[in-house]
Amino acid sequence: MNSLPGIIQSYVDAYNRMDVAAMLACLSDDVTFCNISGAEVTSETSGKQAFAELASFGVQAFASRHQKVVNVITVADTTLIEVDYSAVVSVDLPNGWKAGQNLQFRGASAFRIAGGLVVSIVDQSGHSQKTG
Length: 132
Known about the structure:
This protein is an alpha+beta fold. It has 3 helices and 7 strands. It is globular. The chain starts with 5 loop residues before the first helix and ends with a strand. The model has no long low-confidence stretch (mean pLDDT about 95).
């Protein structure tokens, strides 16, 4: 596996700790974010403030969450990571996930870096496998 660029490793570590401030420290002010599940865009943000609001909601929505990086490909300013994702939902969510539900799925994220900061994140997953 190729090594993960330091700024992305810092972001993933902060994500796993549910540390929004540390996540934001990795991002440019004009960062864009897009989450795609199945073939549908489920959330999009533009700018650090909008990302902060989404990330804060994510911290409240999950009792725990973890991304384990299983593959890394970097070409020029873009790094693709494949992750095994697991989480426990803490509150009933609009997408049908229920409090206490365990989630596990394989996903991927594309990070684009400029000036030493993340300027774009696209998360993509198939339909999640739900247990419990």
